[in-house]
């Protein structure tokens, strides 16, 4: 006796079945709107981005400096202690060259998302952003990069106040 | 007080398909009714129902667990939906184990369902909402970004070759050719096919990724005294473990799944396993991407760090390679890469596969040598959770 | 013989209509800090497992379990998320401890209702997408239909429901955590604008933001941690049909089944005689009455009369929702059941301040998952 008999022969619908009206369907466009409170830590982080600065938080007990900042240390489970100004430079920890959008459309020129460890934070600690002004094939782990900011009068206190990070010329 | 022994006594599933005619509740019913039939139980014999399903955004149904409840057999029963992202399929069995091991329930029906095709233009669109709402979503991320970056970190750390990783996709799609529910079994696929497939998010190429799917799987859990009455081939749940790492995935080393090692150690401890490489005879590690199967085999302590790709290339994880000195058949079902990836259902499919393998009911996929103990594992969230179940006969 | 399980710490934060100063993580961190301090534990070393209770669309985030561990002290620990009422989360924790595998388990739930701009659209997404959603009816209409059927079968009147609002918002006057205390007359409630007839605006609870964290421990561990463990005597949960065409409209069948399971576990044959205080879901005023009857606290059709004669008021024989309930405190989405538990724990400890009920030994809390569900969970606690 094998498991085959316990597989239900579910019905597979093909694109043609929809096109030719053999299968009907109902559509729904969700209308979902949220206004998320940024809170103390991310609120300050974004306010500093508007000024062209990156800040983190230090826990005096474990001495870690983290970014994105939070008001508590998840390792020590206590409120962390102070704001720390960080550089707007860092190191590529990992990256991808992505040829599709979030809804699976094909891109001719890849986006290059990367995790960037920010200088001044603890080793390996950083955040997600794009790389730009770079030959996609030249990007490598360990590459030094620097933030390219939006002009000051266009910044709004958002992660996109940084346009992308670009390679630093040594 | 104390832990009661809990067995899996039945399992059933739907075919995994690209787009099912059935609604979500109907898929859940198909799998649940097959699982009950497989052990000659009726719904009235079931004390409680556990449901697993991934994000509500796929079906665009809020409180999706409630929507699926009637189909899952939960009418007028204690019912719970529990989730840990992609780890849900295996976790739902862990939840069912708590139901029965605690002594609160004697029998428990565990159902996992996923209908990903409802989302237009593409289910990937739903995934943008898994990212941090303030810091990440404005960057327009897609799901492949983070896995590509994890794969890149893994490859870079150990200097891995893509062709060794691609071997997993080949192995699993070949294995799936013998699975009656599979949507992507291919017998004659080669490593070159994988390496030549379009780049999606380098280093991830199309054939490195498992296909999205609709489907459902169900298993029946029973306490010792019920299990022995129902079947002469109970498959015991010997160990469970799970572990979640920090949300701040950009603050940690992605090249090794520490959370999975913690989960595995928890499960091995409970099962009394000291030498997992000798004591586990068959494994179903989570393989939504080919590199993940290898990454997970390392986290499960079943391969050395950075060495799983090399092991794979030697045929160590093949289904019928008994003569390999360190033989450990991995994903004999064909895994997510071959059978398909209806998220929560895919995880539970892995548990069902171990169940069938240990009972000798896996048909053409049956691995030789009467395996006595197997492990199923899943993974998810922001690359941060591992869930592990160890079964034995 | 089941293992004994107790609540040894409970913490809260927020309980305000707006909390713009705090992110949800910061709210939870505050509640967790309170709970751990009360229990005298360090989450990094003492807690075996963590359970959060949340729904993706209430957060506006898919796979919302990703965002749970850090603010709870749960990094690299067993953590799971339950899509249920907070009391469902307690039930999962209870079972984990019963196995003997874990000694201390933490349950968390929170609400940032103020961040959802149109909750109605979210709730509409919970309706069956093929059969009921295309009708375009606001989910509150389900409450109107249910209320009408309930009144019709029970013989109770709209005035009885209005009495619940008057009572609960009056109870809230002596609860510093409550956001909606008020002195109302029955006529005020009846004359309020109808939302879905017969339901009026004042019979619908309003939302607040907040977080609640509960620490549960096994018997000996609980006794070592505190002089005042609050014991779990019984816990139960159940669903009725989700489909609108096959559910029970007049009776809260899910509450009856959840109560039955909890009473059986607790060995309680006569709930009315045993329970000293109850906190019962009152998302809508009629729900308190319907739930009282389903939970066996009175005979069918009796609940309205008991409320009217003050039997369920603070000074009555069986106070129901002394905190003010969701109508008086504010509704906390998935955390609502834990708000009910918070009050029962305080009453059993003698910590309820102005609204302390004398000589309480056994309390009942019941949570309902809200529209359009038929899902509820009950817990019976004792000091």
Description:
- The complex is a heterotrimer of chains A (170), B (393) and C (383).
- Chain A has helices at 15-19, 39-50; strands at residues 7-8, 54-58, 65-66, 72-73, 78-79, 82-86, 89-95, 97-100, 106-111, 113-118, 126-130, 144-149, 162-167.
- By secondary structure, chain A is mainly β.
- The longest helix of chain A is centred in the first third of the chain and has 12 residues, at 39-50.
- The radius of gyration of chain A is 23 Å and the shape is extended.
- The termini of chain A are far apart.
- In chain A, 37% of the residues are buried.
- Helices cover 35% and strands 19% of the residues of chain B.
- In chain B, the strands form 2 sheets. A 9-stranded mixed sheet of chain B has the order 3-2-4-7-1-8-11-10-9, sandwiched between helices. A two-stranded antiparallel ribbon of chain B has the order 5-6.
- In chain B, strand 10 and strand 11 form a beta hairpin.
- The two termini of chain B are 24 Å apart.
- By secondary structure, chain C is an alpha/beta fold.
- The mean pLDDT of chain C is 97.
- Chains B and C meet through helix 2, helix 3, strand 3, helix 4 and strand 8 of B and strand 3, helix 5, strand 8 and helix 11 of C.
